[in-house]
């Protein structure tokens, strides 16, 4: 028994603090951020402590912990949660010339409380043997009757769908968006289930002919170590939506420095490291995300999809419509 | 004597209240009604949630009962090929986290999985040419949850069958009952309290499950809670949904209690002759074998095979020194929590058994509700009071001594273990109470007359009778903590991961093959205690050495 207590105490003490350190709460999974953080430590000698989790639970933890929270930086994988953090008053304003110069203004907060770090787009994928490119167009045209029983998309509980709908509300208003959502649901080939990779597989197999997915999932499948995933991904093609209109819907992974931060300077240093050319190339290479900095080249797979027009809607607006988007999808019967 | 009783009573109220705090936080949310959100939920999705949750609970309850009780009876009363091995092996699915079995079956049976793909290739079919059961559905969720939860019922039912006096069964036979009647009319009613404890654990675990239902896209209460929280950004309304869930559970437990209010189930005879297991032959033996092997095969062997297959591809990359640290963290948390939970349960159950007032009884019942609340919600209920304490202390120290204590307890493993205890005390309390119920009050009285003090009664009479159950309580919580994910995810300290967290992160990125190694480690670490439980039960029959 004594030994157990000893071990327990040791585990507790293990969280000794370093002279220079930065504490990160991250909604990005460990495997998709730790290597980069390690590089930061190697380069600067600043130790990075990490807790990963779901964005909203991390936000809640921050809110409850209050001004004594040990966290310096919050990383998320979508813009909606960054805005929620801002609305809860968790972030502080950061003045960094480098960040402002590197990140386009529509991918960061207008008061510089949060910053986008990498980009992904929500695109249409299709089965080329059953769909010709000419049939495809904007997100809006997905409600066309010809797609009845041919469309796959995941649950409306997913934040990327919520952000897509929120963007549409920002661009078109609630009423039109709701009509769109109702039309979309009518075209579903099946009840929404699974993740984005499952939608890609479903198109490959013939459950549906088109699907809405994030770009890095498709790229990840093409590079997968599992043959079945590669085979499925090769059977389908990517289509950039709305190129004649506003452009493809974009989302970001991003971060904000917390008001409670005890290591503000180190946290800024980390943020600046994350937008450096080296880190941006890492994002592209490891997880096939587009660089936040338009001047950085992306991965081979991303290059192969060509140039595209991105919707330049200020992402700050998306968070404001997120709850509205969820309610709207509830009403439309989007499970 | 009197003051000892008083101290104990105060301790009980204190401990039970302490571990009820997170539940009070959840219930407290009701005081701040979110009318607008509720109107929206009522208009759109609330009835879906209620309906699906009910179907899920009823489905899982019925199937788990069948999968648990029938094999328990068969392996206890009969001998057939492999019956000795099945005795313990039937518990194995307990070591399998529900989300992992869901992931592995989906990976294989899904429309793009290997089975349907080869089916299409061989038969030259298209997707719409044939029918195949859809894994990701309400039915699929019921199946998956039943396959990993039935062992709770099996475990308690088997222990109950083993402990039954043979006399009762023999008398029933002389009164003209055939084998089926003896089971239905004598053994089953006698085992009912134990089976019901198992069932209530299954029901609560089902209601608290999030991983499986979310992955399968079934809209139940838990998915609703998180949708309201994450999607609508309203954690208050989410807590209110949890409070509603609590009401459901209270209703279920009350109905169950009421329905057996009249009956008392103590051992009526002190004579324990050895159970005569009847040898089965031919067709009957085969049927018994199939009935017992099916849940084991589907709930354990097949998913473990899938996992092994994936693990072989990836183990070289995944097994690094970090991995052993994960294993160590998981085992440490599980062990410490299990030990504390057993001690707490023992203390609470005893205080109540002797002279439990109505309030004490209520508090102990109430603290057991934590099992039905999703781990994430419990975690928030733990965070709030702990952070409040830390921040208040910090403010006080700053003001009077000009030093800052920061967050003292929040964000340490202490919070995490506290959350586990809130969530899993139900398991140990139920197991210990079920064991205590079977000890006739007359025994205590006789012992008292013989001059034994309460401590000696515990030591010399109860302990030998309950040893098996205590071990069971310990190991059940151990396994539960090993599998626990959501509370761990929110509450853990910096740079502190467990096997479950690693598995989830990889599986959630849809990297099933990489997730297989940590998943298997959870299962393997859970197998050892499972076998220990089984052995202790086999030996638990009085007179057996």
Q: Your description of this structure?
A:
The complex is a heterodimer of chains A (335) and B (545). Chain A is an alpha/beta fold. Chain A folds into two domains: 19-119 and 250-297, D-Maltodextrin-Binding Protein, domain 2; 121-249 and 315-332, Periplasmic binding protein-like II (D-Maltodextrin-Binding Protein, domain 2), CATH 3.40.190.10. Chain A has helices at 2-13, 34-44, 55-65, 79-87, 97-102, 159-172, 174-186, 196-205, 215-222, 227-234, 264-274, 277-287, 300-304, 316-320, 322-332; strands spanning 21-26, 47-52, 73-76, 114-126, 151-152, 210-214, 237-239, 249-257, 290-291. In chain A, strands 1, 2, 3, 4, 5, 6, 7, 8 and 9 form a nine-stranded mixed beta sheet that branches. In chain A, helix 2 (34-44) links the parallel strand 1 and strand 2 (47-52). The longest helix of chain A is centred in the middle third of the chain and has 14 residues, at 159-172. Chain B has helices at residues 2-28, 35-44, 46-77, 83-89, 98-109, 114-123, 138-163, 166-174, 179-208, 211-216, 221-231, 235-259, 282-318, 321-355, 358-367, 375-401, 413-437, 441-449, 454-483, 486-491, 499-508, 512-538; strands spanning 78-79, 278-279. Chain B has two domains: 1-32 and 337-444 and 471-495, no CATH class; 36-95 and 136-318 and 498-539, MetI-like fold. Chain B has a two-stranded parallel ribbon with strand order 1-2. The model of chain B has no long low-confidence stretch (mean pLDDT 85). The chains are: A alpha/beta (335), B mainly alpha (545). The interface between A and B is large, with 62 and 71 residues.
